[in-house]
Design a protein that fits this description.
heterodimer; A: 227 residues; alpha/beta; Rossmann fold; six-stranded mixed beta sheet; 26% strand; B: 415 residues; alpha+beta; 2 domains; six-stranded mixed beta barrel; two-stranded antiparallel sheet; 16 helices; elongated
Chain lengths: 227, 415
């Protein structure tokens, strides 16, 4: 399968700290299209930092990132933002929905930002996304009126809003009870099949990691194992 | 852009109380700005209106701003060859030379109304009493062009002067001092010994006691005969359609006709500069109100930015560029500014209406007057512009800060 995202000797150091810390060192990662990859490792090992680098939220200190064989290491912040908007979706440990907006509005915001569809079409598409994840009855509720699992599903619906090629999830089940966690894991696994996108999940839950096609283990910022 | 405005609005609506408090700052700022500036502007306009209405806009007098240069000086002036001393002007009948030509020239200007006048001092005698007065010889039909004396007639009328060439208008104070009444006959004598008998056809009361005591209006021909200056005038009174143009027009007129032409601004220069200073003080004070209001806006938007760090991180991770984030918070400032104006201007209008209703009696006055309130558009424009720009400026700093938020810093922190 074609390579979606590739890194070369990716390193991220926090130079401005009193004692410089290396979050990620010399990481070479390749994510192929339609792949379901887990990044695991002990807390503080740099899993999330690697994810942020892959998600173009953070810039590496050195090394290169290729998106579909294009070197994007030197893209401007605005170009990276546009790339995130079109190609990526994020799910975080805490749902991180915008609290003033209803589920539907939360899902519509990235669509409206992209602006490829008319307002009417956006509304229909967003409603479908939410219905797909079993939230048809909750589209007009505020995040505060939803349960943890429901919020996380809205967050997934939002990540899927613009049909991204890559979903990046940072401990998406870290804050959920077992049932909701199971549910979210299933949804993520299905995304690969139903939407044909690649999913990268950061988790320290070995069971979760086992469901994935591939696991990258990271310790002290360095990749120690790939299976 | 619509999306950004939508997000901005939601942020403000989410903290209604804070938003309303900072909005009230702008609303009250705009309203007070309007109330104070309208009353200050109104009193100034009222004052100038009285000044402008009751005096000619430009007075052309029979003198020159600089003494005439002697021909010998014009030839050898700066060479120091000739010196003359003890220059004594020729005795001649004073007055504006060739005034008919000047009048014709002035009347050709579309925005100008003129009337010639001959003023001079003389003495009124009645029942053994004598009072020195200034007589204003004018063409009765032209008085209305350059004077508002008609509005101040309390007895008789200006029209009676048209019909009676021997009529005279006097002030109410003079009438009282000399126990004169309408239709009484008085004797006026000039310095050269000429004496005329005139009939009082009208009494005016302008409220300025000096004026009501000393000014007398009569037929120009009679005044010329009385003062022994046949066919002479010594002043031309000018009214303009645009009194504000007086300064400029006076210069233009003087450049053409050479006689000293004084605008009303020049005649009351000290008052005008007082008004100008007063205006500056007023705008400084009312602007301070809006500056304080701007701090309120700064406060609420800073708070929103601080509380919304997480949301900013999410929006950025979704793919909103920094410029969009900045715009969201700038829009909040604009929304507060616009809403502040929308509520502040009507409230200001209510204040202004209320002030117009207030009547009071100034000390020493017999009539109650109401507060002069100006409804000039420019103060609305100034208030609205100032409030809006204060709001935008106040939101600019927090907005810039918001755009610099790095999503990773927030996400890494967890919350």
């Amino acid at each position: 399968m074609a390579t979606l995202l590739k890194t070369e000797n990716l390193t991220r150091r926090l130079e401005e700290e009193a004692i410089p810390v290396t979050l990620v060192r010399q990481a070479n990662v390749e994510i192929r299209e339609g792949e379901y990859v887990a990044i695991k490792g002990p807390s503080g090992s740099g899993k999330s930092s690697l994810l942020y680098l892959l998600g173009l939220l953070d810039r590496p200190t050195s090394g290169k990132i290729y998106f579909r064989d294009q070197d994007i290491s030197n893209f401007s912040q605005n170009k990276l933002a546009q790339l995130r908007l079109e190609q990526m979706g994020f799910v975080f440990q805490f749902h991180f929905l915008l609290p003033e907006f209803t589920s539907l509005e939360n899902v519509m915001i990235p669509m409206r930002k992209l602006g490829n569809l008319s307002d009417k079409e956006i509304k229909i598409a967003a409603t479908e996304r939410l219905a797909e994840l079993g939230l048809a009855d909750h589209i007009n509720k505020l995040p505060s009126q939803l349960s943890g699992g429901q919020r996380q599903r809205v967050a997934i619906a939002r990540a899927l809003a613009n049909n991204p090629k890559l979903i990046l999830a940072d401990e998406p089940t870290g804050n959920l009870d077992t049932v909701s966690s199971e549910n979210v894991q299933e949804i993520l696994q299905n995304l690969v099949k139903t939407h044909g996108c690649s999913v990268v999940v950061v988790t320290h839950d070995p069971e979760f990691a086992q469901r994935c096609d591939r696991t990258i283990t990271i310790v002290d910022g360095a990749i120690v194992e790939e299976e | 852009m619509r999306l950004l405005a939508f997000i901005a609005l939601k942020h403000l609506l989410a903290r209604k109380r804070q938003s309303i408090v900072s909005l009230m700052g702008i609303v009250l700022g705009v309203a007070f700005f309007l109330a104070i500036s309208s009353i200050m502007q109104g009193s100034e306009e009222d004052f100038i209106k009285r000044l402008v209405d009751n005096s000619p806009h430009i007075t052309i007098s029979d003198e020159f701003r600089n003494p005439r240069v002697q021909p010998v000086d014009r030839l050898y002036g700066d060479k120091g060859i000739v010196s003359i001393s003890g220059v004594k002007p020729l005795t001649e009948t004073r007055g504006i030379r060739g005034y008919e030509k000047i009048l014709a020239y002035l009347e050709n200007q579309p925005d100008i109304k003129v009337s010639p006048v001959l003023t001079g001092s003389s003495i009124i005698s009645f029942a053994g009493q004598e009072k020195g007065v200034t007589i204003n010889g004018m063409i009765p039909q032209e008085i209305d062009r350059v004077s508002t004396i008609r509005d101040y007639m309390v007895e008789g009328s200006l029209d009676r002067l048209y019909a009676n060439p021997d009529g005279v208008l006097i002030g109410v104070t003079l009438a009282k001092n000399l126990s004169l009444a309408l239709n009484d006959t008085i004797t006026i004598s000039a310095q050269n010994g000429n004496v005329r008998t005139l009939k009082i056809v009208g009494i005016f009361k302008t409220g300025r006691s000096g004026y009501d005591r000393s000014q007398v209006f009569m037929n120009l021909k009679r005044a010329q005969a009385l003062l022994g200056r046949i066919n002479r005038i010594n002043a031309i009174l000018v009214k303009l359609d645009q009194p504000n143009q007086a300064l400029l027009r006076a210069h233009e007129i003087e450049a053409v006709i050479k006689y000293k032409s004084e605008s009303w601004q020049e005649q009351s220069e000290d008052l005008m500069s007082t008004l100008a200073i007063r205006n500056k003080i007023m705008y400084t004070v009312v602007s301070a109100v809006l500056v304080v209001a701007a701090f309120g806006i700064y406060n609420v938007i800073s708070t929103v930015v601080m509380e919304k760090h997480r949301d900013i991180a999410i929006l950025k991770s979704m793919g909103f560029p920094a410029a969009d984030i900045r715009m969201i918070f700038l829009i909040q400032g604009i929304l507060l500014g616009v809403a502040g104006n929308l509520a502040g201007v009507p409230l200001g209008v209510i204040f202004m209406r209320a002030m117009e209703e207030i009547e009071f009696r100034p000390p020493g006055s017999t009539e109650a007057i109401s507060m002069p309130v100006s409804w000039g558009m420019e103060q609305f424009a100034i208030a609205a512009t100032f409030a809006l720009s204060a709001a935008v400026l106040a939101s600019f700093l927090p907005a810039r800060k918001a755009s610099h938020v790095q999503p990773v810093d927030i996400l890494r922190g967890g919350l």
